[in-house]
Amino acid sequence: MGADTFAPDVNGAARFAERLAAGLVERGHEVHVMAPAASRKHGTWTETHEGQQFTVHRLYSWRWYPHDWLRFALPWRIKQNSARVLDAVQPDVVHFQSHIVTGRGLSIEGAKRGIRIVGTNHFMPENMLEFTLIPKAWQEKAIGLAWKAARRTFGRAESVTTPTRKAADFLEKHTGLVGVHAISCGIDASNYRPNWEPRTENRIVFVGRVTGEKHIDVLLKAVTLLPAGLDAKVEIVGGGDQLKNLQALARELGIADRVRFTGRVSDEELFEAYHRASVLAMPSIAELQSIVTMEAMASALPVVAANAMALPHLVHDGENGHLFRPGDAADLADKLRQVLEAPQAEYRAMQEASIRLVAAHDIQRTISTFEALYRGEAVVDPSIDVESANAAE
């Protein structure tokens, strides 16, 4: 399995690769992961993730300083490194999680050796533009080149996947690929502990990277538009390059005393943050799935999310939360208010809907589908569209 981002990185692609690798090991498969080293130390060793041990080949990496933590394997050495690892491991299948560096090298060298290749896309070029230092006038051209590079790498794969049907359509549109599978990243909902106790305060939580594409500023502006009587508090869980800017914005908006920035937290601290919250706010407009939203749903939280990309697959408006117009702080405030002011019975119904809707994203189904792809079998994409109660009526 090849990844350009892997634990200890905290993002959807890294978490999916980690969970998939561990799930496959638990089923008895031998799994090796090739990824950039998380520090200057590089080499091959056994690591433990999600309670499972497997071999990780950590490549010599450089820090990308426009980003707050990103490290990348050297592009001009990736074919050599890929050949070395493939010849040592002799895998039956190569599954790359990103086409940028690691996936490109593994797909080239894997194809030379006749190894079955599966590729998964978690990436939108637009998400990385702010970290590339490319002048705005050149960004549209850069996006076009990035999609062409994706087409070349994914074109070497026997099967291509991405987390949702909308993301699959998006990838096909921009690369010309056909037959892209929509396979949920999935979560193990049993790891999350729903909190059914009545909330004693109005607490809004955001979880994720604190970066520009997440539009956390829209959330902070929305908080200023909520009725004062709600005394709403905000918890921003995660680290990123926009932390200081958002702290300054909270002071400027006069809500610094109601906004808590936790930075990165442990899994146990994350569970506690979900338990404290009354609602998850997800203002991002570039989510190809959003594992965070699924985690919140498995924790029995209503969700208010931007009506963009894949979020409507998870948030059924008026059922387990609400969708708001992307970038519209007033609309976000209105939808948050509807959740926070909901009578207890209505709030409980939203909680129960989150639990029901997230059940379709069971990671065991995801693992079984990838096992079939690894064997070269034709698969029918797992259905992740749960019929809504509103539609059923």
TrEMBL record:
Glycosyltransferase subfamily 4-like N-terminal domain segment(s): 10-190
Domain Glycosyl transferase family: 197-352
One biological process term in Gene Ontology: carbohydrate derivative biosynthetic process
Transmembrane segments: none
Coiled coil spans: none
Keywords attached to this entry: Glycosyltransferase, Transferase
Pfam family, one: Glyco_transf_4
Entry's Gene Ontology molecular function annotations: glycosyltransferase activity
Gene3D superfamilies for this protein: Glycogen Phosphorylase B
Keyword set includes Zinc-finger: no
Domain of life of the source: Bacteria
Protein name (record): D-inositol 3-phosphate glycosyltransferase
Protein source organism: Agromyces seonyuensis
